[in-house]
Amino acid sequence: MKKLESREDIELLVNSFYNKVVKDETIGFFFKDVIKVDWDKHLPKMYSFWESILFGQMSYKGNPMAVHFPINQMEAMEKKHFEKWLALWKQTIEENFTGQNASMAIAKSENIANLMAYKMEMARKL
To answer: b/e for 98-117, b at 16 or more Cβ within 10 A?
Structure first.
């Protein structure tokens, strides 16, 4: 186990996480069937997103919430989906990393998942 402390570590984390996601029956279909993710574009954005969140590098430019609203219109993104996302994220971190940044990555992801789940639910009610 090593500390989560570099862009390379984030790339390992994100790549390992999405390897689990695409195989998962609960959320994999969002990526494979609903939005048909272009991984060459998506993965670098996720590296930058987590680099910004964890290391304050400000390499991410975008609005993650705004990106998810159109997906939510195509296929409801429900609390159970965010719970699965969070479980896979935590599992991936715990398999690979230790330390303060690993703990922070889990805490931040919990906040993100809860906020996203709430906002997607509210958007479906409008």
So the answer is: eeebbeebeeebeebbeebb
